[in-house]
């Protein structure tokens, strides 16, 4: 659940969202996108949480910016992004960031 | 709830955690830390979610790495970090990242 990422540097895509009330195809597509992301070159891990207040945060980790670009334009992912904008999200932000250091416990 | 951050570049601290069962002082301290963080120099915003499976993700945004270092060693925050390691978290990762681009909707 906490991603086991390598020594920095590597990249993070921080996706923060608020959902609409539309449930149709959402859970199945979200699950499919996690599965598909994990098969892409450079995928390092993902962490995801949605709170009771409706705010969702998904952070995916990638070896390089090229890997992120490749994933962003993957055909099935593009179609999911289109559905996301049209149906599932009322607001979202995507931030691409270079992880420079990491520490922790457990 | 979705942070309104300025044009990149700026910095993100991605804090991912799994809680213990210890509730004592946790909610009050977590609330106090959000309040205190918002008063620090360079604070740009924060997003936080904890899912039903127990994984929590809090992302705070900062103008510079110096601002993050300053917040990390702030006295009351240091004591909260100590309590976190001892009592509230069974595992956590902290990742410091430079946000290079951002886009979104809503």
From TrEMBL, chains A, B:
Residues 10-96 form the ABM domain. PROSITE patterns: ABM (PS51725). Pfam families: ABM (PF03992). InterPro entries: ABM_dom, Dimeric_a/b-barrel, Jasmonate_Hydroxylase-like. This is ABM domain-containing protein.
């Amino acid at each position: 659940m906490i991603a086991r990422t390598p020594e920095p540097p590597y990249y993070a895509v921080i996706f923060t969202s608020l959902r609409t009330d539309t449930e149709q195809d959402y859970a199945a597509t979200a699950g499919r996108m996690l599965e598909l992301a994990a098969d892409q070159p450079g995928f390092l891990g993902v962490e995801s949480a949605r709170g009771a207040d409706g705010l969702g945060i998904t952070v995916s980790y990638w070896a390089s910016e090229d890997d992120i670009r490749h994933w962003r334009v993957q055909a099935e992912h593009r179609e999911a992004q289109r559905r996301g904008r049209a149906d599932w999200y009322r607001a979202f932000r995507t931030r691409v960031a270079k992880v420079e250091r990491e520490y922790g416990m457990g």
